[in-house]
Amino acid sequence: MNIIKTPYILYVDDGNTFAHDFTQRLLHTATAYHKQYNTDCILIPTERYQWSVRSRGYRRRNRLLGTTIGASGQTEMLGKENVLPISFSASNCLRWSTEIFRSTPFDADMPFVYEDFDMTIRAKRKWVALFCLTDLAIEHHMCPKSKLQDMYIDTADRAYQKSKNRLIFAKHYYANSAML
Fold first, then answer.
1. Dihedral sign, CA of 92, 169, 39, 131?
2. CA dihedral for 100, 105, 106, 107, sign (positive or negative)
3. For the chain, where are the alpha helices, taking DSSP H only?
4. What's the pLDDT tens digit per position in 78-112?
5. What's the farthest any 2 CA atoms get from each other in the chain?
6. Could you tell me the pTM of the whole model?
7. Residue 110 belongs to what H/E stretch?
8. Is the dihedral of CA 41, 2, 113, 21 positive or negative?
9. Are 116 and 89 spatial neighbours (Cβ–Cβ below 8 Å)?
10. Pick from 26, 79, 131, 149: most CB atoms within 10 A?
11. Over the stretch 119-152, which tens digit does the pLDDT of each residue have?
């Protein structure tokens, strides 16, 4: 982590595309939050997939199946952007300060797909604000896959791995009756 020399980090999945003013709008919103509250926050854009909204962050998790319950409610203005306060997120794009990342890094032991859930939950528990920018979207495109990677999609093995990872995540967060 000492390799990071910038004050902020923008994690963007390689399958994402976004508008030309995307980073300016993220920076403007983060600056507005910092001026208002004298601290930093984690920002995620609305994630779209095949022209429909895929994610705007999450409000809580269903304890029985570990499934997510989407964020909803009133948006608020932060700078010039509409934002929705959220509890945690799995996103293909996260913007946060290096300081937050150093105090709440990704957990290498968390199973694949759930590492961003875990990181944002732990950040939120440290009173870091999380917001989804409802009018700022990224388009998530599936990257080209090799024949071997393509064979792995929608197979029994893939279903098994995803189910196993979901149970590991649920056990980690619900073993001690920790509610989200």
1. positive
2. negative
3. 22-37, 98-103, 115-125, 147-152, 156-174
4. 888 888 888 888 777 888 888 888 888 888 877 77
5. 50
6. 0.75
7. none
8. positive
9. yes
10. 131
11. 888 888 888 888 888 888 888 776 666 666 655 6
